[in-house]
């Protein structure tokens, strides 16, 4: 055993004291260092998605999509190492893994052209469509600022004033809101992204990880038993399978739209509260997770995923949520892990990093030479116009206004009607179970009117389950617009 300076330790169990009965000595530098390091073991937990589990694996590209993107990760046969972190969203770092909560599904591809992250969840949509509402959404759903306990009253106070969340809420209260393990769920990039091909042409794409293990969820009646059995069910299941050599796999599918297609829908395809219903999917590769990290902190805690981490051939769309996310992740990571977090082994790209970003807390980049600027005649860093961002046509004035085609309810209804009878019943049981705790009558009635607008059968079943006044719900519903 050594101290942090590498010198050997003589005794790690007895502090140095002044005689047999005297006080402990300040000169015991091994003791002082050990306590100092222990006192600093924790870093800030992620502001959301604090509870997570990570695993390593590889992604193998299967089909030629060079007509869509120059991204080398998609060249057929290319094997790319990956690190995936699954998570819950609202709970603290030590919280139970079973909760009615979206699951994070974040994948870091260590490609030959730099790191690319798909920072997605297990649903194809989200609650809100503008990043400016994200801190409010999180405050309302995290534990109360007074009691420290999550409170349906606060969550539904927000949702009653956020009709665009109706689609996601309908999915969340369906059984798919409670996957029985990380292996038995799909993953989605949620937003539209852009693919750029050799000619500079743009296509809009959505990503979908399809679980080879199939989908399995926990029904409301089985939730108490399942949570009672194991708080860490999701991590134990994933690591248990990998330890046995039963490596979980997901196939990556894409949906593709031309820019000229965007105007054709009765909803806005760049609104992340909407799925691209009816647009065919094509398979582009397969991911296998096959290795459990040796060190939880250095992998799962220190990993830093960001939607802004892209590679040539992949760019952000104009989706307003994605645009906000393009800023927020690196920003929080500079606070959570420090400005040089990208030099940590779990975040370091395989390709060489060559730029003039330098110094700062804990820097160890090893960059050399005194020309730390560009342009320079002496030491030019090469750049290629091939890697410039694509061009996006624009019109109009700067503005602060909602999108035109809001359509808050239609897709929620389509989803509800697609469920088998038993799942419709489970959805009503789970949703009424939480709405019952809403003491603010106005919010409760507003929420039921949203679900009633999405689908009258869903509305009626909720009215019955909650014992609310149906004519008052009808009155509220008649004032709602789905435009
Ligand atoms: C503008 C809206 C959003 C903002 C500002 C935001 C912000 C954040 C922040 C600050 C973190 C913590 C990152 C870290 O400490 O490393 C995080 C984590 C995460 N977010 Fe978001 N988020 C937003 C929307 C979304 C959406 C729509 C999705 C799903 C598509 C999503 C998926 C995730 C995932 C999976 C993680 C965990 C990544 C990991 O495992 O480390 N977020 N988000």
How would you sum up this structure, described in words?
This protein has 483 residues and is an alpha+beta fold. The protein folds into 2 domains: 292 residues, Beta Barrel (Catalase HpII,  Chain A, domain 1); 69 residues, Up-down Bundle (Hemocyanin, N-terminal domain). Helix content is 28%, strand content 16%. The chain is built from 13 helices and 10 strands. Strands 1, 2, 3, 4, 5, 6, 7, 8, 9 and 10 form a 10-stranded antiparallel sheet that branches. A hairpin with a 5-residue loop joins strand 6 and strand 7. Helix 2 runs antiparallel to helix 3. The longest helix is centred in the C-terminal third of the chain and has 17 residues. It starts with 28 loop residues before the first helix and ends in a 5-residue tail after the last helix. The model has no long low-confidence stretch (mean pLDDT 97). The chain binds protoporphyrin IX containing FE. The site of protoporphyrin IX containing FE has 28 residues, from strand 2, strand 3, strand 4 and helix 8.
Quick recap:
The protein is α+β, with helices and mostly antiparallel strands and 483 residues long.
Set out the fold topology:
Elements: H1 29-39, E1 52-61, E2 79-88, E3 103-111, E4 114-121, H2 134-141, H3 152-159, H4 166-173, E5 187-188, E6 193-196, E7 202-211, H5 223-229, H6 233-244, E8 249-257, E9 282-291, H7 296-301, E10 314-316, H8 320-336, H9 410-418, H10 421-435, H11 441-454, H12 456-466, H13 470-478
Antiparallel strand pairs: 1-2, 1-9, 2-3, 3-4, 5-7, 6-7, 6-10, 7-8, 8-9
The structure holds protoporphyrin IX containing FE.
Protoporphyrin IX containing FE binds at residues 46-49, 52, 85, 87, 104, 106, 119-121, 126, 131, 134, 190, 272, 303-305, 321, 324-325, 328-329, 332-333, 336.
């Amino acid at each position: 055993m050594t101290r942090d300076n590498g010198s050997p330790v003589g005794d790690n169990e007895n502090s140095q004291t002044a005689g047999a009965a005297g006080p402990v000595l300040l000169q015991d530098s091994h003791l002082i260092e050990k306590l100092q390091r222990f006192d600093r073991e924790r870093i800030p937990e992620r502001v959301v998605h604090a509870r997570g589990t990570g695993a390593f694996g590889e992604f193998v590209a299967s089909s030629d999509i060079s007509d869509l993107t120059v991204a080398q990760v998609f060249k057929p046969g290319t094997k790319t190492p990956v690190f995936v972190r699954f998570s819950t969203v609202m709970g603290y770092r030590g919280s139970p893994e079973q909760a009615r909560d979206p699951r994070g599904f974040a994948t870091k591809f260590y490609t030959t052209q730099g790191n690319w992250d798909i920072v997605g969840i297990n649903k194809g949509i989200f609650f809100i469509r503008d990043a400016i509402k994200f801190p409010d959404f999180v405050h309302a759903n995290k534990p109360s600022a007074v009691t420290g306990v999550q409170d349906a009253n606060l969550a539904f106070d927000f949702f009653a004033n956020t009709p665009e969340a109706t689609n996601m809420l309908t999915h969340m209260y369906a059984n798919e809101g409670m996957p029985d393990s990380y292996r038995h769920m799909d993953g989605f990039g949620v937003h539209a992204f852009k693919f750029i091909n050799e000619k500079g042409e743009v296509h809009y794409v959505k990503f979908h990880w399809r679980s080879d293990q199939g989908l399995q969820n926990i029904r409301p009646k089985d939730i108490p038993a399942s949570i009672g059995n194991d708080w860490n069910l999701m991590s134990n299941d994933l690591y248990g399978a990998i330890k046995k050599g039963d490596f979980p796999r997901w196939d990556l599918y894409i949906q593709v739209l031309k820019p000229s297609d965007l105007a054709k829908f009765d909803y806005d395809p760049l609104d992340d509260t909407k799925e691209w219903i009816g647009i065919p999917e094509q398979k582009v590769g397969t991911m296998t997770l096959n290795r459990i990290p040796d060190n939880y902190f250095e992998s799962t805690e220190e990993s830093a995923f960001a939607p802004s981490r892209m590679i040539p051939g992949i760019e952000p769309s104009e989706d307003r949520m994605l645009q906000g996310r393009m800023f927020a992740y690196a920003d929080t990571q500079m606070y959570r892990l420090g400005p040089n977090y990208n030099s940590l082994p779990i975040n370091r790209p395989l390709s060489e990093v060559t730029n003039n970003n330098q110094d700062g807390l804990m820097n160890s980049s090893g960059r050399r030479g005194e020309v730390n600027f560009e342009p320079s005649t002496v030491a030019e860093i090469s750049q290629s116009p091939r890697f410039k961002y694509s061009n996006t046509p624009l019109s109009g004035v700067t503005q602060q206004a909602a999108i035109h085609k809001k359509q808050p309810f239609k897709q929620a209804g389509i989803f509800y009607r697609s469920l088998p009878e038993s799942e419709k019943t489970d959805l009503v049981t789970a949703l009424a179970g939480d709405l019952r705790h809403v003491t603010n009558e106005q919010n409760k009635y507003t929420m039921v009117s949203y679900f009633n607008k999405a689908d009258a059968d869903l509305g009626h079943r909720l009215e019955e389950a909650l014992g609310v006044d149906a004519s008052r719900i009808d009155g509220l519903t008649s004032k709602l617009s789905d435009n």
